[in-house]
From TrEMBL:
It holds the Pfam family Zn_clus. InterPro entries: Notoamide_regulator (IPR053187), Zn2-C6_fun-type_DNA-bd_sf (IPR036864), Zn2Cys6_DnaBD (IPR001138). One of its GO terms (molecular function) is zinc ion binding. This is Zn(2)-C6 fungal-type domain-containing protein. Keywords: Nucleus. The lineage of its organism: Eukaryota, Fungi, Dikarya, Ascomycota, Pezizomycotina. It comes from Microdochium trichocladiopsis. Residues 12-42 form the Zn(2)-C6 fungal-type domain.
């Protein structure tokens, strides 16, 4: 006997989420909504992105920012004390840390 496996979907429709059942992800109407005669809709964010795609994008942005801030700290630690003091002064005046990083990197070229 052969068994057919259900195809895994990355995003369940709102009705399948509500009743906590496995959604087949068919568009425009999934199997459950079709059988029950329900309106089948999916949560999509701005520009057609799913919630998971939006989270992955946000994670990527935060990871990039984290790396840039780590680089700024590394540069401050390696600068001569007078230069490091100037950089810290700019940060204390609420100047954007990423702009300060760009300034320090440009000065070191």
């Amino acid at each position: 006997t052969s068994t057919t496996r259900r195809q895994v979907t990355s995003l369940a429709c709102n009705e399948c989420r509500r009743v906590k059942c496995k959604c087949d992800g068919e568009r425009p109407t999934c199997g459950l909504c079709e059988r029950k005669g329900l309106v089948c809709d999916y949560d999509v964010g701005p520009r057609g992105r799913t919630a998971l795609m939006a989270l992955r994008h946000q994670y990527s942005l935060l990871e990039t920012e984290n790396n840039q801030l780590r680089e700024l700290l590394r540069l401050i630690a390696t600068l001569p004390p007078t230069d490091a003091s100037e950089v810290l002064g700019r940060l204390r005046t609420n100047e954007d840390p990423l702009r300060v990083l760009q300034m320090v990197q440009a000065a070191r070229l």
